């Protein structure tokens, strides 16, 4: 996707892609980080919704209508304790819906993107977001999911903890910058898949956003299997990647190279 500050436009774009993926046979669909809004960052705090708010509500309703599991990759969540205005910070939150439209699990991004790359991106996500502090694991009919978001990808200890707690599929909805994505995105995704012997599902933002000129997103959404092979991807522009999850493949790879049993630290 290429999300902007136009929340209604983002909803229409996401809805169309989700419907297309479901029509192609997907029983589980995941969208990128900042699906509903990727515009000026101070404004995203004022537009934040609680978990029972309008943004999660309509994605849950779509999951129910299509009878799919749906991961809203992330949106700007207003915390329960915050007054509506003027809120100072929000959370960057993934929400997993079941085919009945109900929330199965939510995850608040733990590692916030505070960086200063020479001749590149300078950004402090912690200026507008509160970091989460809890792992999120969800058991589903197609496998056990471990949830994460974007910059989390650079912290392998998170994924080790998710796998230790039963994850077979890791989700990494992202808005990776063009500057870092071209060199690091695929390498990090394949590494997380190989070292944890998990499928990795990585829906991504692509292109330029009206966020004050902060960045252009790299895109290249992909699905990686537990051997580290890219089995589906979106090379350019908006679209979706489709692949089959084979939990027997996860089991075979983990049996052949039992790294979990061999780990000493």
Q: Report the structural category.
A: alpha+beta
Q: What is the global morphology?
A: globular
Question: Could you tell me the number of beta strands?
Answer: 14
What's the number of helices? 7
Order of helices and strands: HEHHEEEEEEEHEHEEEEEHH
Round the Cα radius of gyration to an integer and report it. 17 Å
Largest sheet: 6 strands, mixed
Low-confidence stretches: none
Arithmetic mean pLDDT: 94
Strand content: 15-25%
- Helix content bin: 25-40%
What order do the strands of the largest sheet run in, or round the barrel if closed? Answer: 7-8-9-10-13-14
* End-to-end gap: 39 Å
Write up this protein.
By secondary structure, the protein is α+β, with helices and mostly antiparallel strands. The mean pLDDT is 94. The chain has helices spanning 7-23, 41-46, 54-66, 156-164, 178-196, 247-256, 259-262, and strands at 28-30, 69-77, 91-97, 103-108, 114-116, 122-124, 137-140, 143-147, 169-171, 199-202, 206-208, 216-218, 222-224, 230-233. The strands form four sheets. The protein has a six-stranded mixed beta sheet with strand order 7-8-9-10-13-14, covered by helices on one side. Strands 1-2-3-4 form a four-stranded mixed beta sheet. It is globular, with a radius of gyration of 17 Å. 42% of the residues are buried. It contains seven helices and 14 strands. It is 29% helix and 23% strand.
């Amino acid at each position: 996707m290429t999300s902007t500050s136009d929340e209604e436009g983002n909803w229409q774009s996401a809805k169309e892609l989700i419907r297309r993926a479901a029509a192609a046979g997907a029983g589980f669909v995941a969208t990128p980080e900042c699906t509903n809004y990727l515009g000026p960052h101070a404004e995203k705090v004022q537009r934040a919704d609680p978990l029972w708010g309008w943004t999660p509500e309509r994605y849950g309703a779509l999951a129910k209508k299509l009878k799919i599991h749906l991961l809203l990759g992330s949106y700007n969540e207003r915390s329960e304790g915050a007054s509506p205005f003027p809120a100072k910070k929000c959370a960057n939150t993934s929400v997993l819906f079941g085919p009945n439209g109900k929330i199965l699990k939510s995850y608040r991004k733990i590692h916030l993107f505070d960086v200063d790359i020479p001749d590149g991106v300078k950004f402090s996500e912690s200026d507008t977001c509160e970091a989460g502090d809890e792992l999120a694991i969800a058991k589903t009919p197609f496998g056990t999911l471990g949830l994460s978001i974007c910059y989390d990808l650079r912290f392998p200890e998170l994924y080790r903890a998710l796998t230790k707690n039963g994850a077979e599929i890791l989700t990494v909805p992202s808005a990776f910058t063009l500057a870092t994505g071209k060199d690091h995105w695929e390498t990090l995704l394949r590494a997380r898949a190989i070292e944890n012997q998990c499928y990795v599902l990585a829906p991504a933002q692509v292109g330029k956003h009206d966020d004050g000129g902060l960045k252009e997103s790299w895109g290249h959404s992909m699905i990686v299997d537990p051997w580290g092979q890219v089995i589906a991807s979106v090379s350019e522009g908006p679209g979706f990647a489709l692949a089959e999850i084979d939990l027997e493949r996860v089991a075979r790879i983990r049996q052949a190279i039992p790294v979990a049993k061999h780990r000493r630290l």
